[in-house]
Structure formats: C-alpha cells, structure tokens
Amino acid sequence: MKLIRYVLPALCIATAGCSSSEVIDDVSKSEAARIGFNTHMYKNSRALDNSNFNNFFVYGTYVVSTSSQPVQVFMGDRVTKNADGNWTYTNDRYWNPQGTYDFYAYSCENTQVQTGITGNANLNGRVLNLVNYTINQDHASHDLVFASSKEQSRPSTTAGGTSSPVAFAFKHILTRLKFTFKSLIPGENYTVKISNLQISNYRNVGTFLGSTEAWQEPERNPESPSMPLTLSSADGVLQKPGAGGPARTDVSTDAVFMIPFQYQYANVRIEFDFDIQAPDTNGNLMDVMGSHITATWQPNWIKGQSINNVITLSGSATGMDPIRFTASIVPDEGAADDGWVPGAGNANFTFDQSFKN
User: Fold this and answer.
1) Which of 229, 261, 330, 351 fits 253 for a cystine, CB–CB 3.0-4.6 Å?
2) Is position 17 within any domain?
3) Are the C-beta atoms of 167 and 137 separated by less than 8 Å?
C-alpha cells in the first residue's frame, strides 16, 4: 500500500474576415502561371522532418492595387508530396500578374486541426490563426509546424517553362518535452521501477496568431488539465540486480508537445509511483518500499525548444534512507541537428515523498 502526499506550490476569438472567392478570368492559365509550392523544414525533428513530412494545408489571398478587397485563392487546401518529392494539390490555381499574395500553411503532423477537438484554422482577413489549439492525452504527441510567405507576386519563369514555386520554411511552434529518470539507489539486490506517470495543471488551450507568429497567453480547460506520460520502457525498471553491482538503465518518457508559455508560479505537476523490490529467501521479489511522488516546477516553455528534464533518484550508501532528488534540464541527444533549440536549464523541481517499509 502506497502512502500518498502532495506538494503545494510555493506561492500559493477570432472573427471571420470577409474575403472574396471571385476568380479573375483573364489570367493566363499556362504552366508558367500555375502556382506551385516547395518546402523546407528547419533542420530536422524526430517527430516531423523533411523525410516524413508529406502533407500541409495552405491558405492564400491576393489584392490588386485598385482594390483592398482580398481575393481568396486557397482555403485549407491539402498539399501532398508525391513519389518524386514534388508538392501537388488538386484544381490548379494561377497567378494574377497584378496581384500581391499572402500565403500561410501549417501541418499538425501531416493532418489538419479538428474543429471542436484540437482547434480551428481560421483565416481572419488575410491572416491565418490557429484558434483554441488544444493539448490533451489524445493530442499531445503531435508536432505542429507553421510557415508563411507574404507579399509575393508572380515569380519569374524557370528554364522548364514553369513559375518558380512558393517557398515555405516551416518552423516548430510548440515546445517538445520529455522526462528521463535515473537511479542511484545503492544495493546490489534491489529492483527499482517507476510507473503511472502523469503531468497536470499545465495550460492546454491557446491561439497562435499568424500576424506575429506568436502564441497568445494560453488557458486551462478544464480547470486543472492532466494526462498520462508513456514510458519508452514498458516495465519502467531503472535498476535491477547485476553481476558485480546493480544494472542501471535510464528510462525516458515519450515526447509530448506543449503550448509555449512562461509560467509565473511553480504549479505545474508531475507525479509517479516509485517502487523498490528485493528477493526473499526463496528468490522471489517482494515489495520493500513504495511511494507516490508529486513534484511541482515553474516551466519556461519556448516555441521550437526541445527540453529533457532529467530526474535522478538516489539514496545514501547505507541503503534505505529517504530518497533525495536532483533535477536538471539537458537537451535531447542530437537536438542540435533535429530542428529544436535546446531549452534553458533553469527548472527547479520541488519534491515530496513518503515511504512505507
């Protein structure tokens, strides 16, 4: 039976714009005037990179000098990478030689956001916003990328007789987060494991503005959101008996993607079960110690950053003394090459624990 204690914190929409879908009939509908796209993902990311990035959704309008009324050209159209690596869409659109174009695009790991579930893609005037984007346990493992190409006019014709494609450079707009657990529990015969991980009280609903390419302050809905974290190792074993000493293995959670925000208080929580077992006289594992542990911290989540929170569980050389903790943030291995900026290591976790021997 586990004893459970919790840590208290240290201190105690968009409107639819009016746009026109009128098509200008006198545009030359030739390959030279056809609108095409190409893309680049900033470096690579383990969730979405240039090799597995296959779909995005484009919005586009233009205006002419004689009118301020925007003409709608694309409205969430799917653009798909074909077998040759070229980006294609259905029902070709063509450049108006007098038009000045703004294009926006996003991809939620090759899918659209879902109205009422994960958010709304809303073209407000000529600007694309992602409204009420929501993080929950069914929608936390998805990378979200965004790009814009504004004030574009009909490009020059290539040697092959086609117009140069619109170039999108997509960027990650969420914060990639995971936890890595280490064990330094002394003793050769102990099996140490963690289970039932959960993160809670994070801000899970936010709106991303295409005009500034920044998030508005996110909110919590419900009042204290929570979701489980999945371990990369199903059994969650950090340590077990080994020849010549304990065999220790780092165990990490799968990455989740959070809405960027600089929290003002240490009130985001992670909690998990922590268990120690040892063999009895017959060699069967028996429970020695168990605890449900809750930690709070004050995140500073910045878009495009990848953060790995390392939590080390340790005891004294005498064995069953109270567990103490250290916590630090380190970048994921290879983060410098996967399109994420390493996050700053400034998180301080406050832990509490109770044990039953």
Assistant:
1) 229
2) no
3) no
Mark which of 135, 156, 172 sits at the end of a domain.
Answer: 172
Q: Can you spell out the DSSP letters for 101-124?
A: EEEEEEEETTB---TTTT-EEEEE
Dump pLDDT digits (tens) for 214-240.
999 999 999 999 999 999 888 999 988
Query: 289 lies in a domain?
Result: yes
Q: Which of 238, 232, 156 is nearest to 194 (CA)?
A: 238
Encoding tokens for residue 235?
A: 């059994």
- Cβ burial of 247 (10 Å; 0-12, 13-18, 19+) is middle
Instruction: Note down the domain range covering 211.
Output: 3-12+175-352
- Number of domains the chain is built from: 2
The C-alpha atoms of residue 308 and residue 44 are separated, in whole angstroms, by: 17
Name the more confident of 155 and 250. Answer: 250
- The DSSP output letter for 94 is B
Length of the chain in terms of residues written: 357
DSSP string, 211-237: TTTEEPPPB-SSSS-EEE--BSSTT-E
- Does 323 lie in the same domain as 233? yes
Instruction: Reply yes or no on whether the pLDDT at 122 is more than 60.
Output: yes
Sign of the four-CA dihedral 18, 23, 28, 34: positive
Q: Would strands 67-81 and 205-209 be described as parallel, antiparallel, or unpaired?
A: unpaired
pLDDT tens digit sequence for 30-64? 445 665 666 655 554 456 667 788 999 999 999 99
Question: Domain ends where: 131, 146, 172?
Answer: 172
User: Which residues, at least 6 apart from 267, have a Cβ–Cβ distance to it below 8 Å?
Assistant: 9, 201, 296, 298
Specify the CATH number for the domain of residue 42. Answer: 2.60.40
Q: pTM here?
A: 0.79
Residue 79, pLDDT above cutoff 60: yes
Are the beta carbons of 306 and 331 closer than 8 angstroms? yes
Q: Which two three-digit tokens encode residue 269?
A: 């929580």
Q: What is the pLDDT of residue 23?
A: 32
Examine the domain organization and report whether 59 and 46 are in the same domain. yes
* Residues 163, 221 within the same domain: no
